[in-house]
């Protein structure tokens, strides 16, 4: 399974952009990068995903390097409610209609006022 | 709210017992995934069903089994429970488009299982 590497923790000032890096050097050509976050013990919340191109939605932006070996999740204006564990994940295709998400340890993002 | 529902929220039982966890996917989703989150192992994929058929299998113990019913809800059965089975169990759903490579997975709130 493609493995992702993330820093264990990061701090960010409220109102500033939070940039969360992720390395996925063994990613295959057809594997997507997904970002989820988990607040306390709630269910992981989907944020964004991408294959090759940069992506943006109402929550965040995803920047993927041209060689696809790393990516950065950007929360443009972090708030206290963004404090969570952020997971960078490679979705692994196992069969037709079959796939799984391989979670790593994630990055604990602390947004401070 | 992801639209995925799981029952019960909490479950406390004794070693050796059997329990059933239930998951209802989002409207229109065809796939249901089960994940286990324990303190020492993190989030681990267990199994996936797509439209009633098993499609992917992870590190699921033989004491655990799952199924997806015609109405697309799913149940995860855990038997001969051990202390180490205490964990959060999450269900996720996806695949509304019916595409060959399934859509984004949306997670439910989880069931916290405590084995005493």
Describe the structure in your own words.
The complex is a heterodimer of chains A (113) and B (116). Chain A has 113 residues and is mostly beta strands. Chain A contains no helices and ten strands. Helices cover 0% and strands 52% of the residues of chain B. In chain B, the strands form two sheets. In chain B, strands 2, 4, 5, 6, 9, 10 and 11 form a seven-stranded mixed sheet that branches. In chain B, strands 1-3-8-7 form a four-stranded antiparallel sheet, with no helix packed on it. The radius of gyration of chain B is 13 Å and the shape is globular. The termini of chain B are far apart. The A-B interface holds A 34, 36, 41-46, 49, 87, 93-105 and B 2, 4, 31, 33, 35, 37, 42-45, 48, 50-51, 55-56, 58, 88, 90, 92, 95, 100-102, 104-110, 112.
Alpha carbon gap, first and last residue of chain B: 31 Å
* β-strand amount of chain A: over 45%
Radius of gyration of chain A: 14 Å
Broad shape of chain A? globular
How large is the share of residues in beta strands of chain B? over 45%
Helix content of chain A: under 10%
- Total count of strands of chain B: 11
Quickly count the helices of chain B: 0
Key words describing this protein structure:
heterodimer; A: 113 residues; mainly beta; six-stranded mixed sheet; four-stranded antiparallel sheet; 10 strands; B: 116 residues; seven-stranded mixed sheet; 0% helix; globular
